[in-house]
Amino acid sequence: MNLASTVTEKQESAVIREVETIADEMIAFLRGLVQIPTVNPPGKEYLAGAEFIGARLKEFGYQVQYVAAEGRPEHTRAHPRVNVIGSMAGSKARPLVHFNGHFDVVPVGKGWTVDAFAGLVRDGKLYGRGTADQKAGIAAAIHAGEAIRRSGVKLLGTLEQSGTVDEESGGFAGVAWLAECGLIHKDRTDFVIITEPSNVDRVCIGHRGVYWFKVIQHGRIGHGSMPHLGVNAADHLADVIHEINHTLKPRIAKRITNMPVEPPGSRRPSININAVFGGQPEEGTQTPCVIDRAGAIFDRRFLAEEPLEEVQREIHELLEALRRAQPAFQYSLEDLMVVHPTQTDPSSMLVRTVSQSIEEVLGKKAPLIASPGTYDQKHVTRIGHVKDCIAYGPGILDLAHQPDEYVVIEDLVNSAKVMALTAMRLLGTA
Ligand SMILES: [Zn+2]
Fold first, then answer.
1. Do 333 and 249 belong to one domain?
2. Do residues 201 and 68 share a domain?
3. Near ion ligand 1, which residues have CB within 5 Å?
4. Pick from 282, 309, 338: which residue ends a domain?
5. How far is the centre of ligand 1, averaged over its atoms, from the C-alpha of 166 (Å)?
6. pLDDT per residue over 27-42, tens digit each?
7. Is the separation of the CB atoms in 387 and 344 below 8 Å?
8. Ligand 1 centroid vs 187 CA: distance in angstroms?
């Protein structure tokens, strides 16, 4: 099946010209969106963010729906979790292309030399928290769709756009919620493009897996002057960390994925300590005590080639070996979070179409990449069961969460062209 055949060169050049004409409106929209400080945590100004996006979608002819995550614990009166989705039906319901972008941004942090929420434009760049990651992607997708409409080209399938919350904190009240409500679901959705930063010329086809777990060591309290009469839990935690560093890490470092993870250093599995705790509070009066409880939270990133059961068994066996060797070694192991790795078929129509559009707009081949961390693609594939999902957007990935975050305006415009060509080719034109 090649829907691209219905799109003429004349239609394509008309739409490309229209993207250039609409560029100033797109920049003004992005500035306005950056000026709403939708900071997560705690999830500030989400309603204002959703309404700002919804108003523009309405103005551009979409059927707009606000979807609050009713019943989710993080959806509170103080910080409501509100998503927005706009739908523009073509002459047929299918195929359906859904552009999604998250409008929550991480806290500002230190080191800024410009106002993080002013939307300053200088030297061809638009500055602000959440420009690259990823309000620029939202602006590009919405104005790509509008450029098609203004050019007079009629799409055959349905075009959808959504702005969602909480990606930075897991996306459960955002994309996961839309998927659970059936709004992003294989029964109605064919292709999902998440407009996360991919450096304008790359296509991100998936991400590695995540396994977070907590190990707690249980000791026996005693007097610090007679530690031989107690069992120090911190000593045993140190044994666990030592085993991980000297046995597990060298073993997993031999494995490598076939996924094109960027940076290449992340093509091997990894394990990192997120937190260490135990003993008496750092501030406050110290008493001479043998620590009877100590623990750590670990972040194990695993490859598509590593079955989760094996990843978990390796941890369990490492702890059991330590327990067998030392009678006083007592531990508990708790799973905190699992995210399965996901990857869209590189030869799928979606990946080929976006790659081809990038090549035409930018005049160079589009590398396929995969992300070392995760993003909302997991919810699209695992809850929505839509297997054709990628991330593509104008932001520079390395600038995400950094001080003086910006998007290059030329990248913003070029990505809108890529998105417009992609939508036309996937949906077909009359
Ligand atoms: Zn993001």
1. yes
2. yes
3. 133-134, 196
4. 338
5. 10
6. 999 999 999 999 999 9
7. yes
8. 26
